[in-house]
TrEMBL record:
Residues 529-622 form the FDX-ACB domain. The gene is Fdxacb1. GO terms for cellular component: mitochondrial matrix. It comes from Nothocercus julius. Signal peptide: none annotated. SUPFAM superfamilies: Anticodon-binding domain of PheRS, S-adenosyl-L-methionine-dependent methyltransferases. This is phenylalanine--tRNA ligase. It is an enzyme of class 6 (ligase).
Length: 622
């Protein structure tokens, strides 16, 4: 009874009358664009108006869908649902004018729709321009309804067939602004909801204990919304935590399990070993004298202060960072790229027991190229145990078999996908291996754990979700060997729950977590369908005698776009015959998986991206 439903553009009010009878408890406001005298002169319309009024509905005339707030008092401007069937400018108006009509309608709708309300727009076959249309028109010849709605912060959350035959008494009229019917075969009802706003991230300072010191550091801009999200905390119902708990429960049936509950530092100090220096987020010391007034007020004056360097190219042959003047930094820190760096520390503890499987988990960070399953931050779980060297092979085999069984069990409790596992016995430089501990600490990666599914296009060729191997050093007895299994929980959750885009795991939209209440793994249903994408090219000359840092190029794109760049492709490379200067041309595709992204916003991001690559990579734009 609390639902108020607004119907716009009613020609003969037959749809409004049918809906009013079907949902008698709701309160209806039915409107049309024509004046009352003109509409009342049509017999069918007059009968339906009487039916509506007899049921308590309000009927309004001469209502312009582009100025909705003008027709209602402020207290009456909240509608649970707005229907607009087959909008059209009239006569022979083309696609451009009808796009403009929709844009103004959605903008007006935003002023009268409840926060959790819906906007239903029915369009004839092919008009919407989405993959749901059969047949689908070329984009430029459609109404581009999803892109138009994004300008008013709406996302397409559902598409349903518009079955006119199932609506009792409904008769569609209005062909070329006349009282004539038109074909609605293949018509679709597009359901839009409000989008959460694009994030405008503010600088963030994080505090923690590092050894005997309390330190504070500026969080890298692209990670501000991903630090301290608490996905693995006890009260979390995030699928990443559910995957970890179910994996651990299965392993506990075979091995004694002990979780390491102590807080693991986000920062590492020292050399990065086998990891490329451009793939880590560097944190460098910042003197207390340079602390801001705000930092002093927040009690950071007594802490060791650090700042973040986004894109620094200078490093020595060991991967040690240098300041711009070329001097080596005495204290080198970086955000942890893997939890495997804690294996040696763990095994050196007096409480470390051979035969027990210890569990470490938490988020890890790395710079990486833009791709569907290259994650700049993800949650890693590491299982660590020590056994006699004579038992190494059998222990590893049991561990691999148990992990395989637990993943198959996850598959059964989640979505019914065609998932397979593959073990690789040779060392493979996978995405996860790139961020393992240095080669002096890892002796052998014996298995790469891979999964495949034909349900998600980005995983058709298989995806490495973890590694199993042995680590040297740290064991209290020379007769012991340390075995570890490292798994990417985010990729596992995506595969099990059918989540095609890693960014969805980090959304702040409640419609994501609401699908996983009760710590159950279910097939994810996206609340943002067919999001619009925008393509922009950039070409530039790279600096002479400098190697182009493509990882930094991708990282800048991630940062300025707030993770809305989904693809970066090198489409052309040219070297000048006389000067030998080299030019590159890249194509960037912008698309948001959970929020409305407008054409104008993408264009502004591209302009900022062009400025930032000039500033940090010293390229010359063409």
């Amino acid at each position: 009874s609390a639902r108020r439903i607004l119907l716009l553009g009613e020609g003969n009010f037959s749809f409004a009358a049918a809906l009013c009878e079907a949902a008698a408890a709701a309160r209806f406001v039915a409107t049309c664009y024509e004046g009352e005298e003109e509409v009342s002169g049509r017999a069918l319309a007059a009968r339906n108006i009487r039916r509506l009024r007899e049921r308590g509905a309000e009927v309004l005339f001469s209502v312009d869908c582009r100025k909705l707030k003008d027709y209602f008092l402020p207290s009456d401007r909240v509608f649970s649902c707005v229907y607009f069937n087959f909008p059209h400018c009239g006569r022979k108006a083309g696609v451009v004018k009808n796009r403009e009509l929709l844009a103004q309608f959605f903008s007006s709708c935003a002023e009268v729709l409840a926060e959790n309300g819906e906007v239903h727009v029915a369009l004839c076959s092919g008009q919407g321009g989405t993959p749901a249309d059969r047949p689908r028109r070329e984009w430029h010849n459609s109404w581009q309804i999803v892109a138009v709605a994004a300008e008013a912060r709406f996302i397409l959350s559902d598409v349903r067939p518009f079955n006119a035959e199932s609506i009792h008494g409904y008769k569609c009229t209005g062909y070329r602004s006349q009282d004539k019917s038109f074909s609605v075969e293949g018509a679709l009802n597009h359901v839009f909801t409000r989008s959460t706003p694009l994030l405008h991230l503010k600088p963030m300072v994080c505090q923690m204990e590092l050894g005997s010191r309390r330190v504070s550091f500026q969080v890298p801009q692209m990670l501000v919304d991903k630090i301290n999200r608490g996905f693995l905390e006890l009260n979390s119902e995030h699928p990443v935590r559910t995957v970890k708990e179910k994996l651990t429960a299965v392993l506990s049936q075979t091995f004694p399990i002990q979780s390491i509950d102590c807080s693991l530092s986000l920062l590492h100090q020292g050399h990065i070993g086998g990891v490329c220096h451009s793939n880590v987020f560097w944190i460098i010391p910042k003197s207390e004298q340079n602390a801001s007034t705000e930092q002093m007020a927040n009690g950071l004056a007594n802490a060791v202060l650090f700042s973040h360097i986004d894109f620094c190219k200078d490093a020595d042959e060991n991967g040690c960072m240098k300041v711009q003047e070329g001097n080596l930094i005495s204290e080198q820190y970086f955000l942890r790229p893997s939890l495997l760096r804690y294996v040696q520390t763990l095994t050196e503890r007096a409480t470390f027991l051979p035969g027990t499987l210890y569990v470490l988990s938490g988020p890890v960070f790395r710079k990486c190229p833009v791709s569907p399953h290259s994650l700049p931050v993800f949650h890693e779980v590491v299982f660590v145990g020590a056994v006699d060297k004579a038992m190494e092979s059998s222990f590893i085999q049991v561990l691999v078999d148990t992990i395989r069984s637990s993943i198959h069990l996850l598959h059964q409790t989640g979505c019914k996908l065609n998932v397979t596992l593959q073990e690789a016995t040779s060392f493979e430089r996978t995405e996860l291996n790139d961020f393992a501990v240095s080669e002096s600490q890892i002796t052998k990666i014996q298995h790469s754990i891979c999964m495949e599914t034909d349900a998600l296009g980005c995983f058709e060729k298989g995806c490495c979700v973890g590694t199993v191997g042995t680590a040297c050093g740290g064991a209290k007895s020379s007769g012991l060997v340390v075995v570890f299994a490292s798994l990417n929980l985010d990729l596992l959750a995506m595969l099990v729950c059918g989540i095609a885009d890693w960014r969805m795991l980090w959304t702040s939209d409640e419609r994501f977590l609401s699908q996983f209440l009760g710590e159950e793994l279910r097939l994810f249903k996206s609340f943002s369908l067919y999001p619009p994408s925008y393509v922009h090219d950039v070409s530039f000359w790279i600096p002479e005698r400098e190697q182009f840092d493509e990882v930094a190029f991708h990282t800048i794109a991630r940062q300025v776009s707030r993770e809305t760049v989904i693809s970066i492709q090198l489409i052309d490379s040219f070297q000048h015959s006389e000067t030998a200067r080299k030019s590159l041309c890249y194509r960037l595709t912008y698309q948001s998986c959970d929020k409305a992204l407008s054409c104008q916003e993408a264009a502004e991001m591209q302009l900022l991206f062009r400025k930032e690559i000039q500033r940090y990579l010293h390229v010359t734009l063409r």
